[in-house]
Amino acid sequence: MPIGTPPTSVRPAAAGPAGETARAAAPRTVRGPRRGNLRFPRAERLAPYVLVAPAVLVIAGLRLYPLALGVNFSFTGDGDRNGQNVGWDNYRTLFGDPLFAEAMRNTGLLVLLLPVAVAIPGLLATFIYLRVPGHRLYRSVYFFPAVLSPVIIGAIFNLLLAYDGPANALLGAVGLGPVDWLGDPDVAIYAVVGVHVWATFGMALVVFLAGFATLDTSLIDAARVDGASLPLVIRHVIVPGLARTIQFVVVTTMIGMLTSMFGLLYVMTGGGPEGSTYLPEYYIWFQQGQMSRPALASAASTVLFVVMLAVGLAQLAILRRSGRED
């Protein structure tokens, strides 16, 4: 018997025709399992698609199809031209409307303020992760606003930021003049955005803490042993280690700022003063609910979707490039 032959292949020699039949049948017993094994990789390749198919069908039926209907509806008319194809007329009306122009300027302001909205929960999560005194209490306090309704939050801050409210009383106590937080066109949008950031950063804080759970603590310990200061540890260890988490928080925070501020705007300013706090979502509600112009509202929704898609892709590209450089 040749050296290295598997023991299972050793069979006693059989003489005569019966032995020849046994030897001829032996290869077929080996090839049988091989043919069967070839079926399993194909099934394994199809399994992910089968598992994902229900979710894809739900998204296509409840998201993509209504989105396509909305885009198509934006090319139809309102009022007397209801249902008629009007081409790009709604978009011409949209970009000629000063209120929509103000809403788009405020959208640009939100993009500029996005790093602040992401940095606040990121820094707070860092302090909690480093176990500053009272970190458990801080974690509960920081998350608490996320469970409140925007209507309740808006009503509370209407009282706090009133011209004769506690905020101005505190400023007067330190020798600063009162600020018309919600009545000054140059200040109102910052007040509303600040309240929104305060009310929503609790969710981003939880995401950051989940990201810290995957961070290699030995790198932080090594940086501390080498004498690195906290800013250097954050910049060279924590930020690169949380690159994926930061990408997720940036995109979700931007989407929230563009699509989840209606409640605060409605309660705190109602789009005023002088339309200075209009955002695209509030403009869409105004055209649909107050002016009965659903086709124009659909055009505004389409523009908002395109802006969100472009900003999100640009942010992801920038973050990925910075991650590769690090």
From TrEMBL:
PROSITE patterns in the cross-refs: ABC_TM1 (PS50928)
Location within or outside the cell: Cell membrane
Coarse class of the protein's main subcellular location: membrane
Stretch list, region Disordered: 1-36
Stored InterPro entries: ABC_transporter_permease (IPR051393), MetI-like (IPR000515), MetI-like_sf (IPR035906)
Keyword annotations of the record: Cell membrane, Membrane, Transmembrane, Transmembrane helix, Transport
One protein family per Pfam: BPD_transp_1
Any one of the GO CC terms: plasma membrane
Biased composition (Low complexity): 11-29
Membrane topology reported for the UniProt record: Multi-pass membrane protein
UniProt xrefs under PANTHER family: ABC TRANSPORTER PERMEASE PROTEIN, INNER MEMBRANE ABC TRANSPORTER PERMEASE PROTEIN YCJO
Family of the protein in this entry: Belongs to the binding-protein-dependent transport system permease family.
Record-given protein name: Sugar ABC transporter permease
